[in-house]
Specification:
- By secondary structure, this protein is α+β, with helices and mostly antiparallel strands.
- The chain has one helix spanning 23-36; strands at residues 2-6, 9-15, 48-53, 57-64, 69-77.
- The chain has a single domain, classed as YaeB-like fold.
- It has a five-stranded mixed beta sheet, with helices on one face.
- It is globular, with a radius of gyration of 14 Å.
- The relative contact order is 0.21.
Length: 90
């Protein structure tokens, strides 16, 4: 669990218990918090968002604002597990 400040609010970054990643991957995700920046404050409680990382893949976050400001890393989907539909579903 890590703490950081964003627009005057103290946030907690935590990792899902099912997610098994090393310190290097955790540090890489923490570094992304600077790029996400104030965009986090625009999300409502219970929202999720994706962050694309060239090395890790897609990082899935969940936002909690009640009772505290918490970002949870739910999972990481490596690029080899991405699927594109052969049909465009418009």
């Amino acid at each position: 669990m890590f703490r950081f400040s964003m627009e005057g609010n103290q946030w907690i970054l935590r990792f899902s218990q099912q997610l098994e990643i090393g310190d290097e991957e955790k540090n890489r995700i923490i570094e992304h918090m600077n790029t996400v920046g104030e965009n986090i404050t625009g999300f409502s409680h219970g929202d999720s968002f994706l962050l694309f990382d060239e090395q890790l893949g897609v990082i899935v976050f969940m936002v909690e604002k009640i009772p505290s400001f918490i970002l949870t890393v739910l999972t990481i989907i490596p690029e080899e597990h991405w699927f594109n539909s052969p049909n465009n579903l418009n």
